[in-house]
């Protein structure tokens, strides 16, 4: 079974957890920005589950995940640089404002815990990349391994 979905808007990398104390206990929590992004990811995944059969939520099967993060070229770039970026000659790997690839993936994977899979430890393989595109967003493909 394969599930595809996209999340529109600039991808948000998983940030450092915020820590506060309540009633004498330390509590970690996500920033509002991370929380909002994870909620968007979860909503898109749930909609995809409704429209694409074969996925019940959440599954205990092993999964392969492929994520492509699309970023718009920086506004400060000239037309030639933007065209080169959109044609794939320039990579967002050197653009620090795009975020670290591992933190970008973590934000998606954490958002799908309890939605697609029980825990992201069920992911057997993970392919992640960053590209430039006219529209920012993330494309997610999940392949569920059926039990034998």
Structure in words:
- The chain has 148 residues and is α+β, with helices and mostly antiparallel strands.
- The protein has one domain (2-144): 60s Ribosomal Protein L30, Chain: A (2-Layer Sandwich), CATH 3.30.1330.70.
- The protein contains 3 helices and 6 strands; from the N terminus they run βββαβααββ.
- The protein has helices at 32-51, 79-86, 101-111; strands at residues 2-8, 18-22, 25-29, 63-71, 123-132, 137-144.
- The strands form 2 sheets. The chain has a 4-stranded mixed beta sheet, covered by helices on one side. A two-stranded antiparallel sheet has the order 2-3.
- A hairpin with a 2-residue loop joins β2 and β3 (25-29).
- The radius of gyration is 17 Å and the shape is globular.
- The two termini are 14 Å apart.
- The relative contact order is 0.30.
Per-chain topology:
Blueprint: E1 2-8, E2 18-22, E3 25-29, H1 32-51, E4 63-71, H2 79-86, H3 101-111, E5 123-132, E6 137-144
Parallel strand pairs: 4-5
Antiparallel strand pairs: 1-6, 2-3, 4-6
